[in-house]
Amino acid sequence: MNAAIDPALDLVVHRLIRAPRHDLWRAWTDPALVAQWWIPAPSVARVDLLEVRPGGGFVTHMSENGHDYVPHTDSVFIAVDEGHRLVFTNAVNSNWRPALPEPVAMTAEIVLDDHPEGTDYRAIVRHGEPGARSRHEELGFFEGWGSVTAALATLVESGAAS
Description:
Elements: E1 10-17, H1 21-29, H2 31-37, E2 44-50, E3 57-63, E4 69-81, E5 85-89, E6 107-115, E7 118-126, H3 130-138, H4 141-157
Antiparallel strand pairs: 1-7, 2-3, 3-4, 4-5, 5-6, 6-7
């Protein structure tokens, strides 16, 4: 299923990344690579669980000093189209329990399409109601997701995910 984007509920980061789609897929599905870009620098990520399959968990922690980690992501993949699309939500945690994540519940859809210059990359983040979308935007959605998308692009454009 590919749901339409609803501007009242959804936030989108869209970018051309000058690297093959395969490299982006690998950067999203290899825990060692995800740890390199998933958190805005200078904070760092630890990937504790990355089961890239429908129903698989996606759990990360973050640290500002590289020693003390706090929970960051506890979600579950709900759709995986190999090499093209990942969908995960934090409204259900990795133990398949309903969750009340802070700051907002969301479903993220990552779409990778071929482009003559690399990969057309879209991160669509869906919210359940306009207030959650607004809150996420006010908390710095574009800065945060934009920052990690830039880090992802830097990683794959360097050839580190080839």
